Amino acid sequence: MARKTGSHGDITGPKVREVALHLIARHGFAAVSMRQIAADVGVQAGALYRYTPDKQTLLFELMRDHMDALLAARAARGEARNVLDRLDDFTRFHIRFHSERPDAVFVSYMELRNLTPDNFTKLEGLRRTYEDQLEAILKDGVAAGVFAVRDTKITTLAIIAMLTGLTTWYRDGGRLPLDEIERIYIDMVHGAVGMAQG
Fold it and tell me: Which helix (H) or strand (E) holds 87?
């Protein structure tokens, strides 16, 4: 089957991922077919298999790519020495990174149930790597007597869930600018780690 005019691997591959991410975020993994993705990309359905062996692999790669980008961006940021500055920086980083990628965030969290057990395990490993970075900050803060946290793992998961939840309602141009929202979230994170608000 011939490619449609303008279908080039270096363009079509990224387009397949972009379209698939958007459709899955809007309709859910189970409701999106490879034929639908192909139609939105502008290629024959069979052409998709040049870029991914199946829909499960496509979903996993979308989620893995999101986590890889998250971990790479976090590693490139560096880290402050002061434990409170580290916590505040993590909060700002998480909000900024995720607010720019609402579709990827939605798919990465809501479609975990549709991964095969092997793919789920791989994704969980990447998520744990990221979560461990925040938990290390909390543990250091507890050890320094700066934070009062009963369980660092639960608090880590609660903070990440709270920060990630912003992507379900935040829209650019809303009532408050993102800088102000960040300051409010930082205050809430301080409360979660047992710091009195000044």
Answer: helix 83-99
80: pLDDT strictly greater than 80: no
Q: Which pLDDT score, from 0 to 100, does residue 88 have?
A: 96
pTM attached to this predicted model: 0.87
Domains recognised in the chain with CATH numbers: 1-52 (1.10.10.60), 55-192 (1.10.357.10)
Cα–Cα distance, 180 to 166 (Å, whole number): 13
For 164-169, the CB contacts below 8 A with 24+ separation are 164/94, 164/98, 164/105, 164/109, 166/95, 166/98, 166/99, 167/98, 167/99, 167/101, 167/102, 167/105, 167/106, 168/102, 168/106
- Tell me if 149 sits within 8 A of 142, measured CB to CB: yes
CA 11 distance to own-chain centroid = 24
For position 171, what pLDDT does the model report? Answer: 85
